[in-house]
Amino acid sequence: MKKLFYFTLILFLSLGSFLPSTAFAHTNNSEGFSNIVVKEKSLDYELKLDLEELGHALNKETDQKELIDHKILQNYINSHIKLYANSEQVEGRVKKTDIEMIKERPFAVINLNYPIEHKPEKLVIEYNMFLDDSDPSHANYATVKLNGKQQEKVLSYESREVEIGKISFLQNVKQFVVLGLEHIFTGYDHILFVISLLIGARTIRHILSLVTAFTIAHSITLALATFDLVQLPSRFVESAIALSIIYVALINIFNKDSKHQPWLAFGFGLIHGFGFAGILSEMRLDSDSLAMSLLSFNIGIEIGQIVIVSLAFPLILWIRRLKYKPIKWVIPSTSAAILAFGLVWFIQRAF
């Protein structure tokens, strides 16, 4: 059936190149059907779309030779249908395609699978198939099943969203604390910046002042960006984060006795806060629990920072106290390596 699906789709596109443009403009009033079932480890989505309208929409994005590739269809659907499981976006994979006659019209039947780590408490679907591309009058009749509940809605140009379920308070807190932890431990640029600050610290009080200044600063800009009060281009933010790593690493290399000041940590912390906000901007956050989500996410980041400081700072102090001469090159070498990473990231992000 896969070959039949693509053969029919390509046939529609081929006929379009010979018929007058008005004959293949678009179907108008095209229909679609969505049936979404949420399981323990996946979302199963059966999507039925008017085949002629689908062919017209795809022809605007690719050529006919590429239509035999599942990825073309998959990328188009993922860019026009957004699914958020507990606020986090998930992407679907096309598993099977077929053709079905509905009301004497051929429909593409596309089965998608959305892998998830655990069954969500809430699901939001943002639907934009054809509505801005080829047929503003398109309507999709959606049915969503989650935790024994069923939500039905007609998705159209004026109403493009369906929502079912609600995230509990504890689940929301846990989710965003874990997300903050994951973000700091996988944000290697943030980790290297914190380590660079530690290299320039001399006492426990000094490191506490640096970490506190950095925390206050990135909390401010994280909140401003999350509440959409201040926004900066992501390329600028990511490039500036790389520059902050370069700057502090250079100080550590060329001025070994330098004592980093809290204002330095605060200034660069403002930039890092916008970087932390990047992951939240990709999520569908509930306005009712936005403040708690932000607070929980920030708590996760701070826990991660405490772990990094607790592990790295004692090690740096221990290395400094060793008398063995080759050991004295460890910290300068580490700063040089951090500088190299910063330079590579800056080049990748700025150009």
What labels would you give this structure?
2 domains; 351 residues; alpha+beta; 52% helix; 10 strands; 6-stranded mixed β-sheet; 10 helices
Describe the structure.
- With 351 residues, the protein is α+β, with helices and mostly antiparallel strands.
- It has 2 domains: 2-165, no CATH class; 169-350, no CATH class.
- Helix content is 52%, strand content 21%.
- It contains 10 helices and 10 strands.
- The strands form 2 sheets. It has a 6-stranded mixed sheet with strand order 5-6-2-1-8-9. It has a 4-stranded antiparallel sheet with strand order 4-3-7-10.
- A hairpin with a 3-residue loop joins strand 1 and strand 2.
- Helix 5 (188-199) crosses helix 9 and helix 6 (204-226) runs parallel beside helix 8.
- The longest helix has 32 residues, at 290-321.
- The chain starts with a helix and ends with a helix.
Range of helix content: 40-55%
Task: Please indicate the count of domains.
Answer: 2
- The count of helical stretches stands at 10
Ends distance: 45 Å
Largest sheet: 6 strands, mixed
Low-confidence stretches: 16-27, 61-67
Mean pLDDT over the residues: 87
Strand order of the largest sheet: 5-6-2-1-8-9
Give the C-alpha Rg.
26 Å
Q: List the helices and strands in order.
A: HEEHHEEEEEEEEHHHHHHH
How many strand elements?
10
| Structural class estimated from helices and strands | alpha+beta
User: Any idea what the shape is?
Assistant: elongated
Give the quaternary arrangement of the chains.
single chain
How big a fraction of the residues is strand? Answer: 15-25%
